[in-house]
Amino acid sequence: MSALLPDKGAPRLLAVATLVNMTGYGIYLTAGVLYFTRIVDLSAGQIGAGLSAAGAVALLSGIPAGHLADRLGARSVYTATLLIGAVAMAGLCVANDFWSFLIFVSLGSIAQTAGPAARSPLIQEYGGDRPAKFRGYLRSVTNLGIAAGALFAGWGVAVDTDNAYVLLIAGSALSYAACAAIVLFLPRVAPRPSGAGPRWIALRDRPYLVLTVLDGLMAVQYRVLTAAVPLWLVSRTDTPHWTVSAVMLVNTAIVVLFQVRVGSGVDTPGAGANAFRKAGFAFFISCAAISLMAGAATWLAMLLLLTAVVVHTIGEIWHSAGGFELSFTLAPAHAVGQYQGLFGMGLGLGVSIGPALLIALCIQWGRPGWWVVGALFAVTGLAVPATVRWAERVRERAVAQPEPSTV
Questions:
Q1: Residue 401 burial (CB < 10 Å; 0-12/13-18/19+)?
Q2: 203-221 core/surface letters (b: 16 or more CB in 10 A; e: else)
Q3: CA–CA distance, 386 with 402 (Å, rounded to integer)
Q4: CATH number for 312
Q5: Strand, helix or coil at 315?
Q6: What is the average pLDDT across 88-113?
Q7: Which of 187, 234, 362, 364 ranks highest by number of CB atoms within 10 Å?
Q8: What span, in angstroms and rounded, lies between the C-alpha atoms of 407 and 404?
Q9: Is 94 in a helix, a strand, or coil?
Q10: How many domains in the chain?
């Protein structure tokens, strides 16, 4: 078991905190919509509008949270984001109309977006020479926690009573609070002195901005298995409905088992760029296989689905490993949190626009839409290596001619 765990001390403690937090988040992800419908008594339109508004607000929180973590100390800022999450989940337990729902779901989205940015300096500190590898391990832990949360939520959905749903959301609040308590036992990471030049340097780093946009486009892939594939299976194939759950089980198992192993080989900017390129082609192949399911015999459709899910998940692992490596390596040491906050905005934007884009192209247009989406992923992956080379040239010039202080 020790080979499957990070080093003792701070890395292992942060992994435990992540597992606790993501278990509660998995409960919220699985049971949240049903809770809003059954307990808060909201319509589907109100839920969709509220979640979209909350996501838009949360996109703006990553960079400030990361900057504060750099300047004030990551442990305290990360703890604050977790406590905001606990307040948000506890508030949802007593929400009784759209506006109270909107306030607390927005707080929850802010916590979920700001938290990873604030946690980034901790990963940089505890990850030693390979923070991206440690981040990959935490992603496996994240998937494991979300899967465990989904199992707990499954109990509440099966019981299907008001008290059960409230208990689930209260359990999510408790997980945030417990994670905050665990984080307080981590060694303190000293604030990093600001470098020369403007305060918001991430927003002036054009290669990193372009890389963030490209990662955001690639991040649409996270909605393929959760939004497009379930609708495609139900509307265009004769596969049994249990295959919707099987898709997520296969995806989660592969990520948990192989994310760290694959990430170990992605240890340079060049390797990170190559991982993006391979991910783009993997997503293209997966989308093509899914498109061929329409009208196919049930056995063939299920075979194509299994192939698509496995190939897509391999691409997802490459995408994540490449993103972890590039987002850390191309960020200056004194502004890791700020840069990670910016990079997270790309991810958040991709996940937010993903459902609408995929439904319009893949579900409403049909088979051609899958090929268009696959081509978008492939082209995005091909654009990353050139962007990384650009970023490296900019950094070489910056080292050769450092900017004067603007005090």
A1: exposed
A2: eebebbbbbbbbbbbbbbb
A3: 24
A4: 1.20.1250.20
A5: helix
A6: 92
A7: 362
A8: 9
A9: coil
A10: 2
Residues 31 and 140 both lie in one domain? yes
Residues 202, 207, 208, 213, CA torsion sign: positive
Indicate whether 246 and 151 sit together in one domain.
Answer: no
Q: Of all residues in the chain, what percent are helix, strand and coil, respectively (each to 5)? A: 85, 0, 15
Q: When comparing pLDDT for 48 and 46, which is higher?
A: 46
Instruction: Find out whether 380 and 218 touch, Cβ atoms under 8 Å.
Output: yes
Same domain? 345 vs 398: yes
Percent of the chain with pLDDT over 70: 93
CA-wise closest residue to 316 among 291, 341, 350, 342: 350
Would you say 228 and 359 are in contact if contact means Cβ atoms under 8 Å apart? yes
Say which amino acid occupies 165.
Y
Alpha carbon distance 273, 372 (integer Å): 22
The CB density around residue 102, as the number of other CB atoms within 10 Å, is 19
Average pLDDT over residues 151-179: 89
| Rg of the chain (C-alpha set) | 21
Task: State residue 156's pLDDT score.
Answer: 81
- Asked if 4 and 140 touch (Cβ cutoff 8 Å), the reply is no
Same domain, 115 and 202: no
Structure confidence by residue, pLDDT tens digits, 215-270 = 999 999 988 987 788 889 888 899 887 787 788 788 888 988 888 888 888 989 99
> Quick check: 35 and 172 in contact, CB under 8 A?
no
Average pLDDT on 196-221 reads: 86
The reply to whether 73 and 168 lie within a common domain is yes
Choose one of 192, 225, 251: the last residue of a domain: 192
**CA–CA distance, 392 with 386 (Å, rounded to integer):** 10
Contact indicator for 98, 50 with CB cutoff of 8 Å: yes
* Residue 17 CA, distance from chain mean position: 17
Domain extent, residue 278, equals 193-407
Among 135, 163, 192, the domain-final residue is 192
Same domain (yes/no): 181, 269: no
Q: Both 55 and 135 in a single domain?
A: yes
> Rounded to whole angstroms, how far apart are CA atoms 130 and 127?
6
Could you report the per-residue pLDDT of 287-311, keeping only the tens digit for each?
999 999 998 999 999 999 999 999 9
